[in-house]
Amino acid sequence: MSTGSMEQLYQQVILDHAKFPHGRGLGVATGQELRTGESHQVNPTCGDEVTLQVDVSTAPDGAVTVRDVRWEGQGCSISQASVSVLHDLVVDHDLTTVDDLAGTFRALMQSRGAGLDDDAEEKLGDAAAFTGVGKYSARVKCALLGWVALTDALIKTGATRTSEDA
Amino acid sequence: MTSTLDETRDAARTAGMLDDVELAAVRADFPLLSRTLRGGRPLVYLDSGATSQKPEVVLDAEQDFYVQRNAAVHRGAHQLAEEATEAFEDARDRVASFVGVSPAELVWTSNATAGINLVAYAMSNASLGRGGEDSRRFAIGAGDEIVVTEAEHHANLVPWQELAARTGATLRWVGVDDDGRIRADELDTVVTERTKVLAFTHASNVTGAITPVARFVARAREVGALTVLDACQSVPHLPVDLRALGVDFAAFSGHKMLGPTGVGALYGRRELLEAMPPVTTGGSMVEVVTMETTTYAPPPQRFEAGTQMVSQAIGMGAAASYLAELGMDAVAAHEAHLTGLLLDAVASVPGVRVIGPTDTADRLATVAFVVDGVHAHDVGQVLDDAGVAVRVGHHCAQPLHRRFGVAATARATAAVYTTDEEIAVFREALAGVRTFFGLTDGSGA
C-alpha cells in the first residue's frame, strides 16, 4: 500500500530506536563533580513531550564534556527515536562537538529531505536516518523535540552560554 | 462486502439522504476535492471536523463582494455603501434563519472561540457593575458556580476557567462515561442553585456524541442558570433550531460549515443581548459619544465594534444558503450513513479502538480512535501516504483525552461531500498501519 516514501521516512533505525529506546529513565548524576541540567519540552500541537537530564563535567582546562543523558517521554516514533539516537550521539563528547552535532541535525531537518554532504551525514551516524523527516514540515518539530530539550538542559547546567550571552 | 454497503446505502437512501447523482453534484461544487496529492494520489479528506472545504458559491460570494460591492458597511450614504451594507445584513439573515433565530439575535464574531469569550467577558463586565441594573443577571462572584463538561473543546473550557479566576466563582464539571457520552445523570448533583452558567457542547469534536440538550436546558432553567451552547460541530451536520433547543447563547464558526475562516456567529436570546454590557468597545457600536461618556447601540451592533469581516460574513451567509438548499435533513441522513461506514471501518481493523460511542445513535460522523502500539501522529502519517487526511493529536480537548488515558488520538470526520469510496480507502489504509510498524498479531488480514 505504501509508495515507498513511508519506508524512507520510517527507516529501520528509527523504528528500532522507537521500540527499544536508549537512555530512557530519569535519575540523579553519579559522580560528585557532575552538574546536571533538566528540561521539559512539549509539542503543543500533538502533545508529544520529553523530559531530559544531562550531566556534564568540566576539566581543569575548562573543557566541558557531556557525561550522561537520561530522559522520559511520550509521543510518536519520530520524537522518541530521535531522543534515543541523541543519547547515543552526545554522551562522552565535549560541548563543542555536541553543539556542532545539534547544529548539523538542525540543518538536516531544514534540508527538506535532500540531506547533507557525506561528511555531515557520517558525523550524524544514526541521526542521518531522519533525513526523510525534513520532507514533512509537520514532523520536523517531532524530530527536534529532544534536541531542543538538550540545548535547554545544557544551558541549565551553566556549562554553556545562553543565547543572550552569545 | 460490496452488497452490504449497497444495502446500507439503500436503507439510508429511503431515509432521505443524497442519492449518488446529488452527491456527485455536491462534490463538483468543491474544486479542492478533485486535487491530487504527492505521488498523484487522490485526496480523501476526512478532516472536516477541523475545517471544512468550501463550495464555489462561497468563494464566489466573497469575490463578488470585493469585485462589485466593496465599501464600508453601516457608514456612508453612497450607493456602494448601501449595497455593501445590504449584502452584509442579508448574510446575517441567512445565517440566522439557518439556525432558527432572528437576525437581531445574531452577532458576528471572528470565530466561535470569540463568541464564547464574548459572553464570558460580558459577564466579567457585569460583575464589575458595568451595564447597570439590566446587566445584574450576568454578574457572578464568590459562591457562584460555572458548570461545564469534561467533553469540552478548550474553547468552551478555558474562557470559563478564566471567568472563574477573575470573579472568584467556582468551576465545576459534568463527567463523561466510558462511551464518551456526557453524564447527563450528573446534572442534578453538579448543577445547583449556585450555578450561574451551564456551558456545554452540542456535539463533541472528539467522540462525536450528541448531547441531550433538552435535559441540560431543563436543569439550567430549574436553577435559573444561563445556558451557553458550543454548536460548532452540530450546525454543519444536523438540522439545528437554536430557539427550539431553548438555549440562551450559542456559538458556531463559519469555516466548519463550508464557509470562510475569520467569521463566526454568536446567538443570544434578544432580551439577554439587550441587557448584556459590551465587551470590545470603539467605533460602530455606539449611539452618542461625548468626551466623558458613551451610550451604546442596541444589539447586535453593540457587540460588533470596529470594522467587521464583511466578505467572510457574506461567505458564511452563502454557505448557510448552500446547506439549506441541500436540506439539513438530507445532509444529516447522508452523514448518518457515513457514520456507520466509519465505525465499521475502524472496527474491521484489529488493534484499533474507538474513543467514543460505537453505536450510530445520537452521534456524528466524527470517529476518534487509537491504534495499539502506534502513536496517533504515526497513524496519521501512514494514512497521509495513502492520500487520507485525518486529524491527529488532542483536538483541543486535552481533559477528554486524559479521561480516556491517552495523550493523542487520530480522528476521521466526514461531511456532506464525503463518499463511501473514500471511507473504503481509509479502511484499507488503516488496515496497513500496524503491519507497517511490524505489529501484526496474526489475527489481522
Short structural description:
The complex is a heterodimer of chains A (about 170) and B (about 450). By secondary structure, chain A is an alpha+beta fold.
Structural summary, described in words:
- The complex is a heterodimer of chains A (166) and B (445).
- Chain A contains six helices and three strands; from the N terminus they run H-H-E-E-E-H-H-H-H.
- Chain A has a three-stranded antiparallel β-sheet.
- Chain A is of the alpha+beta class.
- Chain A starts with a helix and ends in a 9-residue tail after the last helix.
- Mean pLDDT of chain A is 89; it is low at 162-166.
- The longest helix of chain A has 21 residues, at 137-157.
- Chain A has a single domain (5-157), classed as Sufe protein. Chain: A (Alpha-Beta Complex).
- Chain B is an alpha/beta fold and 445 residues long.
- Chain B contains 16 helices and 15 strands.
- In chain B, helix 1 (2-14) packs antiparallel against helix 12 and helix 4 (79-98) packs across helix 11.
- At the A-B interface, helix 1 and helix 3 of A face helix 13 of B.
